[in-house]
């Protein structure tokens, strides 16, 4: 090949951008999954946690040691094993020291390590000191016994353990959370005694089902004493699938009239809960509460006092509402996605987790026993050579004194191995005393018995299983404690309806001609005498209760609704309805009504058409309202007239020309919406000038008041008979002087 056609290497590889991006992202994804975010089933630790614990053990910071500055530990971790940010490393370290975050803390912190109110309020690492807790020994105790594989650190200058030889299923004890690429893990903490009991059950009965194991592991066990209210069937389903949710609820007691919250769910901040409750009180959505106080102190880490307005407040109902609307009740996701013994992430159920960990433990114990057996056999081998030297002491001394190379001579003379000969040569003179022979033979006997025991265990699965079981039970006895989170089956809390939280008080809702609304307390309110904005005046007023909804009808026949207690006080001018609702351009509010859902009303237009409907049909949550009354061009909406439900009640309609018609309610159909039927006749020739002024409903015991200017005429039920007619007829003409009717009112 000539130089002209020989390919030239430029020091880089040319590949398509898509291929490069896919390869780089896949490498990054695998790194995040396997070496950062997910825990290993064996020791239950993520790499940063494992490196922190190992670095502290290398610094000699065991439970009995004097603590050292946390900055020293973090420096060792990031300098030797974990080339990442010091703040992230320190935060991981702090988490393992917080008793409100970890069920069994691995680090004993001295100084400010945060509080349950603000877990991230910990002091800087230069101010705090730390050491390992006693339970960290279950992770580190067998590290030097040949139980783990060692890998090079990030720069190849040191070695670090690929995992820690955990003596208990630490993954379930403290749990973990992590977000990788395309997957996440959320393992809740559990009680040591329960987990060990399940392990023993699985050792004794390998065919035990997840449901059988749940007789021992009854549910998670968080660091707080808040209740776990998830039903047992849901917990079993969670452990069977490795996925699910757990609900925890605060505990509370009564102290006299007050309600005292004594424990909050895991990782719930007391100040956040207090702020959530206070926000509802400021928004007048918690009228049952008068005050809230935080009385937490060192003796009572959680003590939130709720002061009800009166002794008549139902505490159970109030707390149920708070559970539903604040963090006093919280849901936690569970996702048992961990890296298994095969090095692959997988969502595992409870039996798979425990079975894999027991396999890990069996391998660890086997390696520990084999490591010890190798040491015992080596020691026996050396003692055997040393005993030969004692039995031929003079000859050994002569060889050492006269031979230039005593080691080969000893090997040739006594048939020793190189290790035995080297050990004899390194033996100090003081060990050549006559009594040493007896010690050697005694040590040989002890080591021989230990060797037989080790060989027996390694050769018997039953003995190995018994050893694992005994060690598990011993650790559970040493480090185990009682369950903290009680399991109480309860229904999920339901928030009370807004009307249930508001006292039912009489109110008068006032609507002005320009669409401003307000609510005055009581029914003895003279709406006309209230002050109005310049150029504005009373349009209509209705009496109702603060817990009822109020509906407003605009000139397009659409209905809008809100609750009465949310309306502004009548001390001021109120607020414009256009701030709450979005009527069509040019539309104005013309009428309002209130009542219970089954209250029946007469809706009518100024052209004399209408129908009976239930109040619930007027209520809607849409800001743009809902179509209710179909109107012809030029027609307006009249003030709705409520029915009393009494037998014999009549609908009365009056026109601007003084024609009044009364007819039985039964003649007007009941509809959900629409134009309705003709109520009163307006001749075709007068439809441009005559209109219906008002409609009313008169019961046999009521009196109708007809208002014309400053004058009022009262008509009893019997006095309406001259005006009786069929629905849709013209009706009777009122007396001269009363033919310019402005309003109808029923007393």
How would you describe what is shown here?
The protein has 747 residues and is an alpha+beta fold. Among the domains are: 45-165, Alpha-Beta Complex (Topoisomerase II, domain 5); 251-327, 2-Layer Sandwich (Gyrase A, domain 2); 502-595, no CATH class; 601-611 and 635-747, 6 Propeller (Neuraminidase). The chain is 30% helix and 22% strand. The protein contains 17 helices and 35 strands. It has a 4-stranded antiparallel sheet, covered by helices on one side. The chain has a 4-stranded antiparallel sheet with strand order 19-17-18-22, with no helix packed on it. Strands 23-20-21-26 form a 4-stranded antiparallel sheet, with no helix packed on it. The longest helix is centred in the middle third of the chain and has 42 residues, at 350-391.
Structure keywords:
747 residues; alpha+beta; Gyrase A, domain 2; four-stranded antiparallel beta sheet; 17 helices; 30% helix
Short précis:
This protein has 17 helices and 35 strands. The protein has a four-stranded antiparallel β-sheet with strand order 10-11-13-12, with helices on one face. Strand 6 and strand 7 form a beta hairpin.
CATH topology of the domain at 601-611 and 635-747: Neuraminidase
Shape: elongated
Major β-sheet annotation: 4 strands, antiparallel
Radius of gyration: 43 Å
Q: CA-to-CA gap between the ends?
A: 117 Å
Break the fold down into its secondary structure elements and pairings.
Elements: H1 17-37, H2 47-58, E1 68-69, H3 70-81, H4 86-95, E2 107-110, E3 129-132, H5 137-140, E4 150-152, E5 159-161, H6 170-174, E6 176-179, E7 184-187, H7 192-204, H8 210-213, E8 227-228, H9 232-241, E9 243-249, E10 251-255, E11 258-263, H10 270-282, E12 289-294, E13 304-308, H11 315-325, E14 329-335, E15 337-339, E16 345-347, H12 350-391, H13 393-402, H14 406-414, H15 418-426, H16 436-458, H17 461-479, E17 506-512, E18 516-521, E19 538-545, E20 549-554, E21 558-563, E22 575-576, E23 589-595, E24 600-604, E25 609-614, E26 626-627, E27 641-642, E28 650-655, E29 659-664, E30 677-678, E31 692-698, E32 703-708, E33 711-716, E34 732-733, E35 743-746
Antiparallel strand pairs: 1-3, 2-3, 4-5, 6-7, 8-9, 9-14, 10-11, 11-13, 12-13, 15-16, 17-18, 17-19, 18-22, 20-21, 20-23, 21-26, 24-25, 24-27, 25-30, 28-29, 28-31, 29-34, 32-33, 32-35
Helix pairs in contact: 2-3, 3-4, 7-12, 7-17, 12-15, 12-16, 13-14, 14-15
